[in-house]
Amino acid sequence: MPMPHRTFAQVAKRRLTGKEGRERVREVRALLDELPDYKNGPYADLRKWLLSEIEESRVRSSAVHRDSIAVRREGAAQIALVGPPNVGKSSLLQALSEIQIKTGDYPFTTLRPVPALTRVGGVLVQLVEIPGLIEGANDDRGGGRALLGVLRSADAIVYCVRASADPGELRPVRAEVELAGIQKPGFLAATRADEATPETIQRLAAAFPDLEVVAVSVIDEASLDAFRDAAWRLTGLIRVRLRSNGETQPEPIALEPGATVTEVADWVHHDLAMRFIGARVWGPSARFDGQRVGRDHSVQDGDTVEILQ
Ligand SMILES: Nc1nc2c(ncn2[C@@H]2O[C@H](COP(=O)(O)OP(=O)(O)O)[C@@H](O)[C@H]2O)c(=O)[nH]1
Ligand SMILES: [Mg+2]
Fold first, then answer.
1. Is the CB of 195 under 6 A from ligand 1?
2. d(CA 218, CA 80)
3. Atom 4 in ligand 1: which residue has the minimum CA distance?
4. Is 122 helix (H, G, I), strand (E, B) or coil?
5. Could you give the domains of the chain?
6. Which atom of ligand 1 has the smallest separation from the CA of 220?
7. Total Cβ atoms within 10 A of residue 99
8. Given this model, what pLDDT does residue 281 score?
9. How far is the CA of 107 from the centre of ligand 2 (A)?
């Protein structure tokens, strides 16, 4: 019995997540080998999609060489980490990363944004370290304009400063972001918190009253969890679990608030969104378990949805 095509699609997406270039092409080839060899129908669609992935990976690989500053978006949201050097941004990325970053490939002195996928709220999101954003960035000092460009396209910003630092250390970075007119949801990560006292953290909170302060240390697992929670809230997304044949997928999908069951169906497959007839819903948006709803029903965070066709 072949794997149900929707499950295959999910597994394929997961296996390709975080893979680029030759590694991605190799994984696509392996998936093509495992795919049942039907000439028509959903498996044939999957084959077409995988073949197009090979082509796209090639195009992207050559593009990366031309413009090394661009960060390809991955995951449900992109969150930029910005702050002075040596505050522990790379270490934080490393501690939170789902796929291990090889530090050899990304020396800590790197001047390029470094992406990493991490699971927050059960959903993969992309964290991007923005190194070396210095005073004068808006005048392109330190390649600042390209770095601000990356910040501008991110969904949210985490300002990083040592928990024991003088609040003044973060001011130049914030000033450049403001000068660039970039306004995003954000919070302040008080990093290397194991070196700090409650008083210094208080001082940061008082200096930046508009930002939630999250104290974090890479050697304190509970603080990393608090960071993940705050990062998840920043995305503003909602989570829905898919159910089919009486089985609920363990990993939720992430959607914009206000999404309808049509968008859930679309996430599964474009065609399914066109032809499905309704859904069953369990959870906060349902009046009772398994409520039958129409295509325009809005889902809520924590719902489980079964698409009916
Ligand atoms: N005590 C302590 N040291 C840390 C922590 N995070 C990073 N560091 C250290 O701070 C230094 C700078 O870290 P790095 O991640 O390169 O900072 P970045 O320049 O902001 O990316 C390194 O020596 C790290 O080992 C932390 O949570 N606690
Ligand atoms: Mg770094």
1. yes
2. 18
3. 192
4. coil
5. 5-66 (no CATH), 78-235 (3.40.50.300), 238-308 (3.10.20.30)
6. 27
7. 12
8. 98
9. 8
